[in-house]
């Protein structure tokens, strides 16, 4: 798995950490495995970066479709992987 480093300004960092902390807490309350947690956080980061660091709450179905289409067309990601990315978007 690739490690993603994201250079952020102070406000962006605080917002991003809060979002990812919320997701992490939600997954842990539901007793998801650590491996699943890491995978979901990875896909959420990729989704955010793909859309120019916009907050996922400000996006909807068209942005999800654009992201999944990009994964399928240009990056050759398998359907199962796309499904995992889509499930990650739904957390929490």
UniProtKB/TrEMBL annotation:
UniProt superkingdom: Bacteria
Q: Does the keyword Cytoplasm apply?
A: no
This protein's UniProt keywords: DNA integration, DNA-binding, Plasmid
Q: Which positions fall inside the Core-binding (CB) domain? A: 14-92
Instruction: Name the Gene Ontology molecular function terms of this record.
Output: DNA binding
Q: Spell out the protein name for this chain.
A: Core-binding (CB) domain-containing protein
Entries under InterPro entries matching the protein: CB (IPR044068), Integrase_recombinase_N (IPR010998), Integrase_SAM-like_N (IPR004107)
Gene3D superfamilies cross-referenced by the UniProt entry: 1.10.150.130
What single Pfam family name could you report for this chain, choosing any that match? Answer: Phage_int_SAM_4
Q: Which PROSITE patterns match?
A: CB
The biological process GO terms on file are:
DNA integration
